[in-house]
Structure formats: structure tokens, C-alpha cells
Amino acid sequence: MKIAVSGKGGAGKTTVAGVMARILGDRGRKVIAIDADPDSNLASAIGIDEESLRDVKPLAAMDEFIAERTGAKKGRYGAFFQLNPRVDDIPERFSLVKDGVKLLVLGSIPQGGGGCFCAENALLRSLLSYVMIERDEYVIVDLEAGLEHLGRGTTEYIDALIVVVEPGKRSFQTARQVRRLADDIGIKKVYVVGNKIADGQDEALVRENLDGLPLLGFLSLNDRIIEADKRGVSPYDLSEKVREEVTAILDSLEDLTG
Cα–Cα 20 to 30 A to 6, which of 41, 113, 132, 144? Predict the structure, then answer.
């Protein structure tokens, strides 16, 4: 199954993606988790310690490697480069591993007028296409709300786009934007997870703003998630309630996608 997770910054998408990856790993599934949002920290949500992260460089920042694989220096707009560089060795070569979960950190794809297409863009999109189409593993991608990393060639292989919302207007606005972008690039299966739910009123507010999208479930407002962030550990390792709620969300997703 190939899963993309998006939502407004701070809504909790990285928590959902990281805990979901850990649950699948504990079930014995092979999992590739991809951090495609430079403003998030999927490694921490998975439970990878800071020492292991210290020397990790995002793929988009590996100038020599990008040049080696594409034939062009990073950031060279208009230069000739390999559109389909070799990427099949990247998951084994550059992943950090935690309890059966392989993590790849992509970094930021530059944006330009009409859509940037430069050497690092070609490498990262080729990698995403490869893991979505060729790899026989669970893939969980923590995305920016703008879905910039997803090309049309990979969208038909995405089994689910999960939009994480919190009970608030800005979060719902972002969710609607993500849905429009998903429609534009051909993602058909879009689902909602409500996060930071304090009471029945919060649940009702989320339900009122689904715009017809299926609801996978809710995550409660939970001090243990805040504590996990402060300590730089995964909520999976601190909160049984988080594990139970994300397990229910994952089970609901698997039931809906067959």
C-alpha cells in the first residue's frame, strides 16, 4: 500500500505518518517512510534519535550525488541532465532504520515559475516514482500541503491520500486546497483524519467540514504527544492511547481500500 499524508503545518500529519509507520513495522510489514516536507521531522515521529540524525543530509542537498546521477549540477536550470536517473539503490544506501521502518529524507524541491524542473527535482521525483511503482513495500510519504513532490506519473499508484485536520477554519481551508490539488493531479482516494480532538464538539466540527470525504477516525488532544515532541521521541513510544487510535485509523484505511 502506498500512502501520502498531508495537511496544514501543525495539524499533526507527521505524527500520524510516523506512528502509522511504526505500527506497520511492528506488524512485520516492510515499510519505507519518506520525509518530503522540509519543515517537518518525520525521523523524530518515527523514533530515530538525534545522534543518528546528526550526519544525515537530505537527498536534495547531496550536490555531488545529484551531479553523479543526473549529469548536471544542482540548481542548473535549463541544463541538459538525465531525466530518469538511477535511483534503485537509494533506499538501501541512504535510509535510516528504526524497528523495521526505513526512513528517507528528501529535502526541499525548489519552486519556479511554471514549475521547476532541475536536476535535484528529476532525482527526487524519479525516486518517488520508483518506490511507488516498483517497490513491494508499504510506503508512507509525509508531504507538504502543496503536494509538490507528486508527479502525475505516480498518482495512479497512490492507494490513499490522508489529509490530517484539526478543528479550526485554517486547517479546513488547507484540507480543501489539498483536495483540489489532488483532483488536479488525479488522486482519487482522499481521506480525512481529525486530530487534536478535545470533545464531542470538536468531532462534530470536523464532521461538518468533511465536504464528502471519508473520515478514517480521530486522534485525541494528548499531552503525551506534546511531551514526545519536547523529548525528541516518537509518540508511539510514550502513549498507548496514540497507538490505539492510529491503529484504528490504519485498520479503517485498510478496510476502505480493500
Answer: 113
Contacts of 255 (CB under 8 A, 6+ apart): none
Domains of the chain in sequence order: 2-48+96-109+136-257 (3.40.50.300)
For 48, 89, 153, the CA distances from 97, given in Å and listed in that order, are 8, 15, 28
Q: Per-residue pLDDT tens for 30-50?
A: 999 999 988 878 999 999 988
C-alpha cell at 223: 499531552
Residue 240: exposure state from Cβ atoms within 10 A (0-12, 13-18, ≥19)? exposed
**Count of all residues that appear for the chain in the document:** 258
pLDDT (tens digit, 9 = 90+) per residue, 51-83?
A: 888 878 999 999 999 999 998 765 555 557 777
Residue 83's identity, in one-letter code, is: L
- The pairing of beta strand 2-7 with beta strand 160-165: parallel
